[in-house]
Amino acid sequence: MNRNNKTFTLEQIETIRSICQTSRETDEMCLLVWLLIETDLKPRHLLGWFNRNPDNRNDYLQGNIVLPGGVLFTKRHHAYLSQFKRKCLKWIGTSNVSFEMLSRSVRNKMPGKKLSTKLKELHSPKKIIKKTLLKKDVKKSKLPNN
Positive or negative CA dihedral for 64, 67, 72, 73? Predict the structure, then answer.
């Protein structure tokens, strides 16, 4: 199987999500994985600007998720990836995983459960309204003038 085609099953995602949701307040790794599942942020964003700037973090989350101030994640990407592989072996019985695989699986199989879908909906209705208005204008212009 190609690396690009590897994904978690829906049951595996739900298992990881439920474990991380219960342990996110005490376990740094669970918080990272839970944020990967619940948002559209990539690991580089979570370990970058999201980690360092509490104001931008709160603006992005819009009060839907409350996180403590200060730096959340102190380790580097590779350390979290190694830890994630060990945790997945314990949780779901496979260690051949990556953060990219988790993001791709969540994006394809659980789009409705993410915080980011709410953020996307804020922007998409404007486009839909514009398209419908344009269609109505076209229909009106095609009508013969009597």
Answer: negative
DSSP state of 6: -
Q: What is the pLDDT of residues 58-87, one digit of tens each?
A: 888 887 777 877 788 888 999 999 999 999
Indicate the length of the chain as a whole number: 146
Q: Give dist(CA 40, CA 50) in Å, integer.
A: 12
- State the Cα–Cα distance between residues 100 and 15, nearest whole angstrom: 18
- pTM comes to 0.70
Q: What are 32's two structure tokens?
A: 């990272």
Distance set, CA 109 to CA 33, 58, 97, 114 (Å): 16, 27, 17, 11
Distance, in Å, from the CA atom of 44 to the CA atom of 115, rounded to the nearest integer, reads: 18
